[in-house]
Write the structure tokens for this entry.
Amino acid sequence: MRSSNPVFSRRGFSRDNGHAGFNTAPQAGGAAVGTQGSPYAQPQAGNPYAQNPYAQNPYAQQDLQQGAPPQAPVTTGRMTIDDVIMRTGTTLGVLIVTAALAWALLPVDDANISRSYGIGIGAALIGMVLALVQSFKRKASPALILAYAAFEGVFLGVLSNIVDNRIADGAAMQAVLGTMAVFAGVLVAYKAGWIRVNRRFYGFVMAAALGFILLMVVNMLFAVFGGGDGLGFRSGPLGIIFGVVGILLGACFLALDFKQVEDGIAYGAPREEAWLAAFGLTLTLVWIYMEFLRIIAILNSSD
């Protein structure tokens, strides 16, 4: 199952990193078989696809036309849940540190708010470019991912400081707690089987996300060329409704990302792909945090 996360949706975890893939040259008997030790050949024990590893396996490289059985995967060099946790923790740690530094070093008082806000917007643009570059790379680049986290942290630090100090005291902590609650809730629901991630779920989330993004783009264009709040989708009662919808979409992205990581581990994605998982999860958590911050700002606005 491919995630709706912008990193995961372009492709699955990489399959051509040197020890992935299958050799389709005919062997004795004329059938093409996998190379010795392919890490994508079989799911690990206990995987729900074990009876039919090709049913929904996004990583298997088996030549289905030849019908040769896969060989056992290697036991080293594969991604584990510990790898994903460590890389995600590192990426979020960099983001949090740079956000804290931006909060402390870029004041948002009347004399400095324009400069600080300008730096924050510049950091956001650089982070967006880095995210796009990583999204289109064939392999995960830890340097790019950590650089993205650093610049995104600067932007979030400035923005959170503005909202916290000029609109709603304590907004940043409330948004952090809300994001943590959504993450924990989705994780529990996913592990308990209350959220069933399948093709129908994926299609629904993708359609909803596309509609949401298009509405936000239209609203932004009306705001830029018509002034004011555009169509009002990001302010007032409508802004609150759309913020809640954004959080729900973020929760759905998390479920899809959990599924992607679970499948990657089950089918032996290479260890370095844990950085890609960390990148995608960070993007989703930033999305959710931003929506919480927006809702809090609207609720506490003096308008």
About this structure: Confidence is low (pLDDT under 50) at residues 15-75. Helices lie at 81-105, 113-136, 142-166, 171-192, 199-226, 236-266, 274-299. Residues 13 and 156 are 28 Å apart (CA to CA).
